[in-house]
């Protein structure tokens, strides 16, 4: 992809992202256009509710999409992603453990220490599963086996999570079930002071792996021969992915299909393999997808909260099915 | 250029050494087209992987330009030695240009940006193997013979004095095999590269190579 085409595409995606962000800020149970800007309710809705939600959508979408891209490149498998490989389930299980252990924690509005612990557990869960999948993928190179093991692992972790839920009290169970449906609406501005720096560091860090990621698309042997420290790359990508998935899952719940479908769509739309291009596009496209899902949620259900997972699954699943039928295409 | 002394090759697993072949002594020089011959499972690929640094020697020495290969950094080794393996590369929107450009990995910055000099080298590598008209094609759209040529072009773009090819003729028809070996021979004679190639195709090897290394049972190795 030429430099000018890359810049043009990036600007177009930024424009779409800005439009969607404005829509997300304005639409909801109260239309922001219908309130005077001098009205205190305007700034209260905008800064306390809408802005955190819009920023969370951008962070969740771009983070999960980037994470999916990193995993797909590392495993050289276009069907890899945090949800499919059970990484989100690992986060969920560990969040369940943390939530049930610290019974005073509530998903919306619990004190910062509690949220930090939940986030830490969430990251640990994601790291644990990614490490297992990676070890299996090194033993068995078959993409199908890795995916099946990921799916099975996800089922095992979900079953364990069910067991914890069964043993928990009614309040914790309700809190956890609500969290599990996925929502970008429960993050506060204070939470974002904690989330944004971690998110920014992982995003910046991932851009330092463009060169080795480009090389590993050939295969590990070629990458090693091209001077790439493959073990260091693996560990770095696992840490970045685990932090991103863990962070996003802790605050938004497990969001399905963004991690797998956005990198696939990005490769289908933008015919490039270079990670500078694909990482940029995935970040922007991922943010656009979750913002769109959130706008749809608000437009369809302004009086009640439609789980964002419903919409992301409805958007993401057809993309994956499309890929399976078009597997000859150069998406992976 | 490459001096192998008392080399034992194999795999390390849980602290144990699983020896595949030992007592290898070889001297390979610039301009040599070396054919590595032997039955399946004898250790040809293990030897090639050990030479390229993908596997550690169990014992013995490999010296490249009079320096022990373990003393080179990964970056330095990547500028000395390039590989072409049997595994097919594909997907992820990889074009012919992308793959040949990956040969510049040891020389470019961390963001993978190619300079105009890099682009000239890549174009030259494509021209040398008559691949320039195919540069924007996806690798998945090429024939097996064309794919092998792309991987060799990647090695040329890597600008290494040594190229190692593991069974490059595995998926090729008769004409493509001869064309490939003729290209390798040309690289040795015109550019003074040392090329080591493993193959089961003895007749083909005899036609082109100037040195053969035959690995036989009971750690017997024959150099002609």
Structural shape of chain A: globular
Based on CA atoms alone, the radius of gyration of chain A comes out at: 20 Å
Helix-strand sequence of chain A: HHHHHHHHHHHHH
| CATH superfamily label of chain A | ABC transporter involved in vitamin B12 uptake, BtuC
Number of domain units of chain A: 1
Task: Predict the CATH topology of the largest domain in chain B.
Answer: Rossmann fold
Backbone CA Rg of chain B: 17 Å
Question: How many strand segments of chain B?
Answer: 10
Residue stretches of chain B low in confidence (pLDDT < 50, at least 5 long) are: none
Question: What is the helix tally of chain B?
Answer: 7
Poorly predicted parts of chain A: 104-112
Q: Note the overall shape of chain B.
A: globular
**Total strand segments of chain A:** 0
Strand content of chain A: under 5%
Helix/sheet category of chain B: alpha/beta
Residue share in helices of chain B?
25-40%
What is the architecture of chain A at the second tier of CATH? Orthogonal Bundle
Topology at a glance:
The complex is a heterodimer of chains A (332) and B (224).
Chain A: H1 3-26, H2 40-75, H3 87-101, H4 112-139, H5 143-167, H6 170-180, H7 189-207, H8 210-216, H9 220-225, H10 230-252, H11 258-269, H12 275-300, H13 308-325
Helix pairs in contact in A: 1-2, 1-12, 2-7, 2-10, 2-11, 2-12, 3-4, 3-5, 3-10, 4-5, 4-10, 7-10, 11-12, 11-13, 12-13
Chain B: E1 2-13, E2 16-28, E3 33-38, H1 44-52, E4 59-64, E5 67-68, H2 74-78, E6 81-84, H3 96-102, H4 116-128, H5 144-157, E7 162-166, H6 174-191, E8 194-198, H7 202-208, E9 211-216, E10 220-223
Parallel strand pairs in B: 3-8, 3-9, 6-7, 7-8
Antiparallel strand pairs in B: 1-2, 1-4, 4-5, 9-10
Helix pairs in contact in B: 3-5, 4-5
């Amino acid at each position: 992809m030429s430099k000018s085409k890359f810049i043009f595409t990036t600007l177009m995606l930024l424009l779409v992202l800005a439009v969607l962000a404005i829509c997300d800020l304005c639409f909801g149970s109260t239309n922001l256009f219908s309130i005077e800007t001098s009205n205190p309710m305007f700034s209260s809705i905008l800064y306390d509710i809408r802005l955190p939600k819009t920023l969370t959508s951008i962070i969740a979408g771009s983070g999960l999409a980037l994470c999916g891209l990193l995993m797909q490149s590392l495993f050289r498998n276009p069907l890899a992603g945090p949800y499919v490989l059970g990484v989100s389930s690992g986060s969920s299980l560990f969040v369940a453990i943390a939530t049930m252990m610290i019974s005073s924690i509530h998903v919306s509005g619990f004190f910062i220490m509690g949220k930090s612990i939940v986030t830490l557990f969430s990251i640990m869960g994601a790291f644990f599963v990614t490490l297992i999948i990676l070890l299996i993928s090194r033993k068995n190179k078959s993409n199908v086996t890795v995916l099946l093991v990921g799916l099975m692992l996800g089922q095992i972790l979900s079953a364990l999570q069910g067991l914890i839920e069964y043993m928990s009290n009614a309040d914790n169970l309700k809190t956890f079930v609500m969290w599990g449906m996925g929502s970008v609406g429960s993050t506060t501005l204070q939470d974002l002071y904690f989330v944004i720096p971690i998110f920014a560091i992982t995003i910046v860090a991932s851009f330092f792996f463009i060169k080795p990621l480009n090389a590993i698309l050939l295969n590990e042997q070629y990458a090693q021969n091209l001077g790439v420290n493959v073990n260091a790359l693996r560990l770095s990508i696992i840490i970045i992915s685990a932090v991103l998935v863990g962070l996003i899952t802790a605050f938004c719940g497990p969001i399905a299909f963004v991690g797998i479908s956005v990198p696939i769509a990005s490769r289908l739309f933008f015919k490039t393999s270079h990670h500078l291009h694909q990482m940029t596009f995935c970040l922007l496209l991922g943010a656009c997808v979750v913002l769109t899902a959130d706008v749809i949620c608000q437009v369809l259900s302004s009086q009640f909260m439609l789980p964002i997972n419903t919409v992301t699954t409805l958007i993401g699943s057809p993309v994956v099915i499309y890929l399976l039928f078009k597997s000859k295409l150069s998406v992976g | 250029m490459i001096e192998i002394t008392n080399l034992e090759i194999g795999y390390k697993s849980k602290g144990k050494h699983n020896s595949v072949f030992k007592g290898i002594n070889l001297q390979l020089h610039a301009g040599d087209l070396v054919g590595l011959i032997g039955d399946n499972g004898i250790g040809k690929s293990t030897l090639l992987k050990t030479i390229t640094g993908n596997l550690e020697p169990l014992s013995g020495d490999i010296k490249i330009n009079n320096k022990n290969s373990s003393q080179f950094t990964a970056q330095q080794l990547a500028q000395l030695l390039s590989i072409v393996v049997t595994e097919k590369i594909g997907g992820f929107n990889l074009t012919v240009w992308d793959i040949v450009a990956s040969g510049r990995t040891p020389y470019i910055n961390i963001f993978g940006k190619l300079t105009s000099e890099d682009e000239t080298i890549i174009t030259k590598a494509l021209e040398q193997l008559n691949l320039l008209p195919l540069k924007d094609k996806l690798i998945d759209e090429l024939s097996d013979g064309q794919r092998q040529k792309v991987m060799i072009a990647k090695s040329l773009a890597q600008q290494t004095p040594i190229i190692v090819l593991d069974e490059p003729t595995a998926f090729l028809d008769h004409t493509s095999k001869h064309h490939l070996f003729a290209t390798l021979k040309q690289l040795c004679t015109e550019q003074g590269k040392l090329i080591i190639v493993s193959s089961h195709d003895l007749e083909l090897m005899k036609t082109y190579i100037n040195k053969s290394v035959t690995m036989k049972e009971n750690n017997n190795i024959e150099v002609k």
